[in-house]
Hints:
Blueprint: H1 7-10, H2 16-22, H3 29-34, H4 54-89, H5 93-109, H6 111-121, H7 124-148, H8 151-178, H9 185-211, H10 221-243, H11 251-260, H12 262-265, H13 276-307, H14 311-336, H15 341-361, H16 364-378, H17 381-390, H18 397-406, H19 414-424, H20 427-430, H21 432-450, H22 453-461, E1 467-468, E2 471-472, H23 476-490
Antiparallel strand pairs: 1-2
Helix pairs in contact: 4-8, 4-9, 4-10, 5-8, 6-7, 6-8, 6-18, 7-8, 7-10, 8-9, 8-18, 9-14, 9-17, 13-14, 13-16, 13-17, 13-18, 13-19, 13-21, 14-16, 15-16, 15-17, 15-21, 19-21
Amino acid sequence: MPFGMGKVGKREEPELxxxxxxxxxxxxxVEAIQNMQRKxxxxxxxxxxSALTVRQSILPITLVTIxxxxxxxxxxxxxxxxxxxxxxxxxxxxxAGGLQGAYFGAYLIGPPTYSGWIVRKxxxxxxxxxGLCIYGVGALMFWPSAVKxxxxxxxxxxxxxxxxxxxxxxxxNPFIATCGPPRLSEFRLEISQxxxxxxxxxxxxxxxxxxxxxxxxxxxxxxxxTYLGIAGFVFxxxxxFFFSPIPEVTDAxxxxxxxxxxxxxxxxxxxxxxxxxxxxxxxAQFCYVGAQVGVASQFIKYSVESAKISDAAAxxxxxxxxxxxxxxxxxxxxxxxxxxxxxxxxxxMTGVMVFIACAMGVEGExxxxxxxxxxxxxxxxxxxxxxxxIRGLGRHTKRGSSWIVAAVSGGAxxxxxxxxxxxxxxxxxxxxxxxxxxxxxFAFPIYLNTVCAQELDGFRETKIGYRDEDGTIGxxxxxxxxxxxxxxxxGISPVExxxxx
Length: 501
């Protein structure tokens, strides 16, 4: 039985009785920062990180955001390198679908099994390190694949790279979402992933204009050396994260935080099998990512068919779309400071639905413009579905997060179906496949805005991680200080004073 699904994995999640027993002797958020250099922490123990302030979380969030940018850059470069590999080996469209299956198939296997187990057993820091090392090994494997010009080796290398990136996402996404005041969770992940989008946009531009300018399309020597450079870079990054100050936010911390917000959210601890919002979020993420990759994989061919332009001109249109995608993430992050994230998700998903439908019916440059706007409105969907899905999971946060990351495997299914329809019909008609995926994802914000509004708004209103005259709300030191004041001024026992959150 896989690690993530067996009894071993379940023992890594805390029981409520364990959390209650630790509450009165849990560390403060100051101690959580002081212990950031510890290399591993029990997932069943409280660390004090459930009440980190914005100031305390800035450094670790910045470090992981840099990681988002760097692996976004490496991922964007990977697309260019893969394209050169395919051209050199004359890989057919059907085989190209197999490449996507190898890459995204790793997401289906890793997060629910070994990646999810590592993040629960050893914590975020070690999961970052392991993910980077797996990624580096996958990049190294491209060298012998290029030497032998082996399609099978290329698929295997992509699978290993996908395993590394899925492991990184299993740790990075929930870490950003939980490290800091809970009311800013969606904003933090949106901003961090915005920098990932910038890296993904910059890499192809640099590759085409600097790395591979004036090179023979069939020559793989530059590709080999670039992969080697990526491998060396990510191994160095793993060393950096070994020594970096990363606070550990455990499932016990998230359970305590959820209990502290219960007055606003109506939170009640439930077994994992009853977390229906999580399951809906996984399904929505699977269909959304599949549809997103389906649009991206056919964008250039759709543009050639619609506007009767060259592949190079179509690539320029796609670059514009990628730029709008990055801008859209920053725009969504800004909106989340003044609007509820569930509303932002609803607005952006509505935009996706409207413009993908228009792209099916509009010909010429107008159709290309409609599909470009789809990329803009796609921008905030993945991180917002992620954060809203793990809201209120408490002690199941890490396991639930790994399932949502596993939903990225939808990218293995939809592009092949989209290409199949395009081969038999047209690329305009083929956009009906992403439309179906977006429709399923569109049902999720409707569900959130009707069924889960009180819970989500409660997390939006909580002040945990913010300071008042007594200290940081949600922190043990504030509770002790308030109890001490009550004891001194009113002469009652500190345990008789109920602390409200």
